[in-house]
Amino acid sequence: MAILAAFFVTLTALLHLGFLVLEMFFWTKPFGRKTFRMSAEQAAATKVLAANQGLYNGFLAAGLVWSLLHPDPAIACQLKLFFLVCVIVAAIYGAWSVKPRILLVQGGPAMIALVLTLLAF
Q1: What pLDDT digit, counting tens, does each position of 71-111 carry?
Q2: Are 27 and 19 in contact (CB under 8 A)?
Q3: Are 96 and 106 in contact (CB under 8 A)?
Q4: DSSP state of 104
C-alpha cells in the first residue's frame, strides 16, 4: 500500500511540476495557448497571473517531493497529508471558479494519493 501511495504522491508532484512549466514558460507559446484554449491576446494579458499560479504549483510539487524524501516516516506522512490536502483544495477551487475538469485532472491523483496514504499509515 505504501508503494502505491508513494507512486500517486509522485504522480501528483510531477503533474504540478508540469503545471509550473506550462504556466511559467509555455503560457504564451503555441503549446500553452492550445492547452488552455487561449488566443495570443488572452495569453499575453494573463501571462503574469499564470506565472504566479505556476510558481504556487511548483511549491506544491516541492512539498510533495519533500514528503517523499523526508527520513522520518511520521513527519513524511504529515507532509504528504498537508500538501495533498492543499492540492485537493486548489483543485476544488479551480473546478468551481474555472472549469469542473480541473477537479479530475489536478485533484484526482491527489485524492487517490491521500486515500492510499491514509490506508498505509
Answers
A1: 999 999 999 999 999 999 999 999 999 999 999 999 999 99
A2: no
A3: no
A4: I
Q: Using an 8 Å Cβ cutoff, are 40 and 8 in contact?
A: no
Are 115 and 8 contacting, i.e. CB atoms less than 8 angstroms apart?
A: no
C-alpha to C-alpha distance for 100 and 52, rounded to whole angstroms: 21
Residue 54 CB contacts under 8 Å (≥ 6 apart), including other chains: 19, 20, 21, 22, 23, 24, 25, 27
Q: What is the pLDDT of residue 11?
A: 98
Give CA torsion, residues 84, 89, 91, 97, to 10 deg. -170
Residue 66's contacts (CB-CB under 8 Å, 6 or more residues apart) are 79
Residue carrying the nine cell digits 504549483? 57
Residue 2 is which amino acid? A
Task: Determine the 3-state secondary structure of 37 from DSSP.
Answer: coil
